Amino acid sequence: MKSGQEQNMARNTDSAGTTGPNDRGPDHGSDQRDPPGLQLTHAAVMTTDLKRAVTFYRDILGLSVRVVEDDPIRKGRRRAMLADTSGRDVVEIIEMSEMAHPSIPGRGGIHHVGFRLPRREWHSLRSRMDAASYRYEEVEGRLFVKDVDGLVLEIEQA
Q1: Predicted confidence band at 96 (pLDDT cuts at 50, 70, 90)?
Q2: For residue 40, pLDDT beyond 70
Q3: Could you tell me if 58 and 65 are in contact, meaning their C-beta atoms sit under 8 angstroms apart?
């Protein structure tokens, strides 16, 4: 009888004996595999005020600022990349000051961005928002809060 590790390797081996794309090799652990399919890498959020938006996502939500820079893709713009506690980029904030102009209502946007926090950190976030008098709604164990540009964020307990 084959071990689980041997069975996993057998499933990832083709008729020529080469390993498939999900074999991460011995350096990454034999049972760790790349999840199949499309994965969300980050949410790109447009803002009229990069400094205010970064302050909100850092000081209220607790994300880490990885970089604030000239946008390498959208020339003439500034952006910030914010990371979660594992260091993964989760939010890109793009400054678009023209969004404040009244002739551009509702340009693009996202309906909402969902986050999950462990229970203790979730309560800590709620306390930070209370201390900052930051408005939010709590519905069935989820916090709904708007960022500085009105984007709705949903934060659930893990």
Answers
A1: confident
A2: no
A3: yes
SS3 of 119, please?
helix
Phi, psi for 50 (deg, rounded to 5):
-60, -45
Is pLDDT above 90 for 50? yes
First to last CA, the chain: 38
Length reported for the chain: 158
Q: Which residues make beta-bridge pairs with 115?
A: 155
- Cα–Cα distance between 83 and 66 in angstroms, integer? 6
Residue type, 8: N
Largest separation between any pair of C-alpha atoms in the chain = 70
Q: Which of 60, 62, 99 is nearest to 77 (CA)?
A: 99
Contact 93, 80 (CB under 8 A): yes
Bridge partners of residue 81, in order along the sequence: 67, 92
pTM: 0.61
In the predicted model, is pLDDT for residue 91 greater than 60? Answer: yes
Strands 89-95 and 43-47: parallel
Give the C-alpha separation, 148 to 45, whole Å.
11
